[in-house]
Structures are given as C-alpha cells and as structure tokens.
What does this fold into?
Amino acid sequence: MTASTANASAVVGLQWGDEGKGKLVDLLAPQFDAVVRYNGGANAGHSVVVGGERYALHLIPSGILSPGVYAIVGNGVVVDPARLLEEMKILSDRGVDVSKLVISDRAHVVMPYHKEEDALREELLSSSVSDQTSASCGVIAAIGTTKRGIGPAYADKVQRATAIRIGDLLCPAVLREKLTMICSMKNAVLNALRPDGQASFDPDGIADEMIALGEQLRPMVKDTAYLLDDIRKAGGTILFEGANATMLDVDHGTFPYVTSSNSSALGMGPGTGVPPQAIGRIIGVVKAYSTRVGGGPMPTELFDGVGDEIRTRGREFGTTTGRPRRVGWLDLVALKYAAMISGATELCITLLDVLSGEDELKLAVAYDMPDGRRDRFIADGHALVDAKPVYETMAGFSQEITGARTFDELPDEAKAYIQRIEAFVGVPVGMISVGPDREQTIVRA
Ligand code: GDP
Ligand code: IMO
Ligand code: MG
It folds into this structure.
C-alpha cells in the first residue's frame, strides 16, 4: 500500500526564476523529513544566507543545510556528476553534513557533449539574428541559456536511446556499449554545428571519467520514488523545492524562451514519482518586482534609472552565471496566470525591502495588444512581445523595513501594496521576506 494523505508541501517560483526559493526552502526545511528537487539542473542557483554565511546551491537541494533532513535529487533533475561532487565538497569543507544526500538512479546525466551542444546552438542562434533590436525575443534569437547543457540533456531523455541515466554510471559494461553508439552520433551532429567540423568525443575517455564519477556517487544512488513513499508511509513529510520557475515552464511559460523542464508545480509528480494527492500546500514565491535573465519578452521591463536602482539595491546579478538580471515592475497579469498554473495555495512575497525608496510603485493589471486590451496572460514568447502593460500606480515607501517581523510593523504603503497583490491574484500572502537572512521573514497568522 502507498501513502495516501497530503503530507507534502511545495515551494515554487511564480516568475522567471530567482524569486528567493532557496531562502524559503531553507527556512521551512527543518519542519520536514525530506526536501526534494524535481526539475532542472545546474541552471538553478539558490542562495541561502545562514548566520551571515552565504551558500550557493545549484544541484543539491537547499534542505541540505538543515541537519537530519533528507536532501533528495529526484528523477526529473538532470545531473552533471562532476558539478554535484564539487558542490558536495564545497559544502563539506564548510562543515555542512552531506550524509543525507540521495540521488535518483533515474535522474539523467548531463554529459560533456550536452554542454558543447548547448553553447554551439546558442552561438548559431545569436549569429542568425539579422535585426539586433529584436535579439531578445525575435523569431530567431538565442534563448540566453545558462550553457549548462540542460536542453540537450532533456532532449536525449525524450529521444531515449541516446540518454544516460545515473544508474548507467554504475554499470560500466552497459555504459561503454552505449557511449560507443552515442559518441558516433554526437560527433556527426556536432560536426554539423561546429564551425571547424572537428567534434571528436572519445567514448572510452568519457566512459572512464563517468565510471569514476559514478563510483563516488554510488553510495548515494537509490530508487528515490520508493524512498519518498517509505518516508510518507512512516508519517513523514516532504517539501518540494522548485527550480527555475513557472514562467520558464516548457509547456506553460513564455515558450520558446523557457527552460526544458516542467518548472511549474506541475513537474512535481513526474519529477519524483510522488502522486498528485500527496501535495497539499503550494507556496508560490514572487519578488515584489520582476526580474528575468536571458532572452524573451518581459512586458514590464524597465530601461531607466528606476530599473538600475532596483537592480543595484536588490543585487540582481545571477547566482549561476553572474549575468545582470533584467528588472521590471511587478506584472500581476503574469502572476495571476502563474498562480493558476502552479495551483498556489498561498504567496510568499520576497525582496520587499528592495522597493524602499521608490516614490511610487507600479503594478501591471492588463496588457494593451494590437487588437485591444486584455487581462489574460499570453503564454507565447513571440506574441507577448506586443504586450504594452497597463499600470496601476500606488504610493511607495521610504522607511527601511529589513527589521520588520510582523505585518503591522510595515509602512501603510507597503501593506496596501501587499493587499492589492493578494486581491488581484485571489491568493493570500502568507509570508513576506524583507531581507536575505532566515530571520528577516514575516509569517502572517
Ligand atoms: P532562487 O533561485 O529563487 O533561490 O533565488 P536566488 O538565490 O537566485 O536569488 C534571490 C536573491 O535574493 C539571493 O541573493 C537571496 O539571498 C536574496 N534574497 C532572498 N530574499 C530576500 C529578501 O527578502 N530581501 C533581499 N534584499 N534579498 C533577498
Ligand atoms: P533558479 O532556480 C533564472 C533561464 C535562463 C534562460 C532560460 C533557459 O535559480 O530560479 P537553460 O540553461 O535552463 O536552458 O536556460 O532559462 N533560467 C533561469 N533564470 N533562474 C533560474 O533558476 C533559471 N534557470 C534557467 O537564464 O533564459
Ligand atoms: Mg536563482
């Protein structure tokens, strides 16, 4: 018999990533028996600040910082084994106990040729753009990926025969046989993509490297679907840690300017093997404004001094690539859509402190399109380019709010801003984050 109660919760981003999911997962993790990642790979960058110490997690769930809690890398994650081991070492060297880390035998492996293909495809797409003004979201434009090999690794998963799973790294004979076939195919494809036509991935060399990495991972590799079910059957609780975010979901985001997985809450089941009825609470994390990294439309993007101020105050530079993040006002049309897709039962508004000092705050409540005004989101990266936001303007606040610990301690203007968001989206705001530290959080009764 499998466990049947809704004893799992989730933290999922409702924008284009970097909403502060890592901070929230770290805060909540001690209340759970396991934290599980279900999608993405080293494209994610989750920053957690504990006692003034900053940790950057890419593949390892943020729950690793909570002693005694399982940190599970689910089957839906694409794993770069060398990066995972490097991340473990960095954490161990800083005194973090990594003994509760478990990796699914069914997670797919990001191979060296995936990273090369990711970079080559991006290069080719950028050089195909003739009109540079449309480079961020034209019909042909680079996606602006993290170049971590994410798209090609997921493509091989769907292709099936050319995929390598973590379990394969533990079976040297199988791996060698597969790699002989795969490398000949990859070299042919990459030769067509490479300007010099010199792709020469060597199956034996890659197999030696991957078998050695697999040996290091072996003690952590398990059937995590059964492990998660065992935890639930024993009355334990699970927290899902979303990576990337709802607007980057391959089916429901601003396609094609998205990542290659179901990075909304909808990816939880396939990415872990936990059935839908297990999930009760879904916390949608949203910044008090918008950010985006890479290409693709962002209707409320700011190109003026206000955008620069928010970028500087919010330290909006990527955790994974260091790229400056694009900044804009909060887009309530997009947020309401994302809350619908991810089934958010509550919202957590983060980085509210960053807006302190702005005279006025704008919220997009509709889009003007060539064919008229609309209040529904357009989940198409090309069509969305034409959306001109219709703003509602609210009074800003100038007080420093990083010390606020209750909703009542916030300035009236900040309270009104939060209340407007919850009224528009129709989902209550349960938590407000006013700084990167664990304690800098308001939990509403
Ligand atoms: P994630 O990918 O969703 O985990 O978010 P990132 O870690 O990539 O980016 C969020 C950034 O904001 C990190 O540098 C956090 O330390 C920081 N952060 C999180 N919450 C707050 C907050 O309420 N206020 C401020 N000022 N920074 C925050
Ligand atoms: P976290 O978990 C922000 C974006 C990339 C690019 C697009 C596709 O830290 O919120 P990919 O490498 O996945 O093929 O890139 O998706 N992207 C993210 N942006 N935060 C992330 O993760 C992201 N993961 C992917 O910038 O535009
Ligand atoms: Mg991030």
Notes: The chain has twelve helices and 20 strands. Confidence is low (pLDDT under 50) at residues 130-135.
